Amino acid sequence: MKRRIINLWLLLLVLCPALEAQNWDYIRSSGEYYYGSGTGKTEAEADKAALNDLVQMIAVHVSSDFQSQTDETQTNGNIDHKTYVRNCVSTYSSSALTNVEKWTEGKEPEVTVRRYMLRSELDKIYEKRIEKIRDMVAIADGALEKAKVDMALQYYYWAYSLARSLQHPTEAKDEAGHSLVTLLPVKIRGILEDISVAFEKREGDCVDLVFNYKGRPVSGLDFLYSDGREECDGAAKDGRGMLEMAPGYETEFYHLDIEYEYKNLARGDDELQAVLNVVAKAAFPESSVSVKGRAAQGGTSVAASRPTARPATASVASTDAPAEASAAGPSPSQTVDDDALYCEAMEKVLAAIKSRNYVKASSCFTLEGLDVYNKLISYGTGRVVGQPDMVYYRSSNGQVVARGLQMSFSFMNGKRKKTFVEDVVFTFNPDKKISNVAFGLGKVAESDILNRYAPGWKDETRELIMEFLENYKTAYCLKRLDYIRDIFADDAVIIVGNIVKRNLAAVPEERAISLEGQDIIKYNRYDKETYLANLARTFKLNEFINLRFTNNDVQWLEKYEDAEIYGIQIGQEYTSSRYADKGYLFLLVDMTDHNAPQIKVRTWQPNEVSMSKIFSAGDFYND
């Protein structure tokens, strides 16, 4: 009996290679599969070669039926269609070819890997990309309804680029049956045509501009401009932007290119990033703006006159922009009647900032306020934008809040200048001293909180949430590690999601389908001290950090009668001197003690997470 078993094993060892060879012959000859093989000194090297061979076969097969919308790839001035098709197909290899089977033969340093997939799977891969396109269009439509033109441009253009990479671009359609590859550029042009830019004034080398969309201030917009010496990054917020020109450079016209590609924010999404690298950037002449400057205007401000930028035309967006978001302003009961002393203090602060003699305003601050002020004036090169229209109101805790100042902050990010525009908010204590300085959220984000329908919410609640988010944002921008340490509970749950590659060694050999190269989201949980240590390193390595909150949703956990606990979901764009990305921030905050809010849970998820999988209060408090 024992000898029979041994003989059977020996027979199987002889037959297995032959059976495998027959199976591989069938895969290659049946016409049912796409396949590729590769050899290398390591399994990873052989696998990469096999995937490349597989992609090449797919590209050859679909090349004659692959429709390109524009002259995407050129060789010696001629369109190289085959190269373009192969590049488009390769954008699927790292994130969408999930049903690719794998055989491995031999051992290092002579390894052979064979990759293959059913041809019928290709249509499923295309359909998955079409679903992603539709999701992006839905995000852009929602952003445009709230007049968030920067987000609308970004997602419309990303969806347009993905559609152009399809084998049959016209197959991506909206719910009404319209071809998106035709409709999306019309939407993008419509938005760009409805953006107007006007010169307001120039002081020294700084030029203040006014940015409107359909006659109303834009909530946010990014652009490129030349300072007369080099190309610079600029940004507008709540209708205000600034150009910082090279010293002594005078010009009659200022030229801007409105950003719509947002390639730097595609990091982490390998599929999208690959498409943006392969599909040639679509040109939209409407994104180029020339603004008449001081020389053309006789050296006067045009703030009180009609803008002389490109004329506005009717937008083709499906919905008109809503009325301008309500700014954070006082109700009649909050109006400060005796504001003379507050005005006097703010005039001193503004004069100190404009003259860069910052010490002159020191007497206006408490010690704590002065510490934040000193960090603020060290945040790049700061300048006042436009003519401040200060509003003073009394908050629910009795303190007076001053809003209406906008400042630009410029950094030399390598060889390229980067500028941000921020609202700056000042809080006065009962002694009429400035006890805190913070960056505002912007009118749209403020409106999300102040005007949100939430039965049972008091004005005090809304102010408290807005103040907390402003201080949170400011602490990261100004690298206030001490403040961040104070607002995190000692037992806080901190979860950070990152895009990672699946490890080949983690896939069992007997598993037919390999996910090598596929993007996954790995979640790391940190305790408070580890998170703060990592954050301290990040602060040290970066010249600057800036946060932009694109939208927020706040949930009050009413069932905890003796505590005020809120779940806050925020769309966040993170920009630093070394890295930029966007994603979703969730904070579970205990605000029972209004003077000492505590973050119980903080999670960060990259932008590639499905909306249905974004963390909420229910993921942590569901008892």
UniProtKB/TrEMBL annotation:
Signal sequence, start to end: 1-21
Keywords: Signal
Biased composition (Low complexity): 303-333
Region of interest called Disordered, as start-end residue ranges on this chain: 295-335
Protein name, as recorded: Conserved domain protein
Lineage: Bacteria, Pseudomonadati, Bacteroidota, Bacteroidia, Bacteroidales
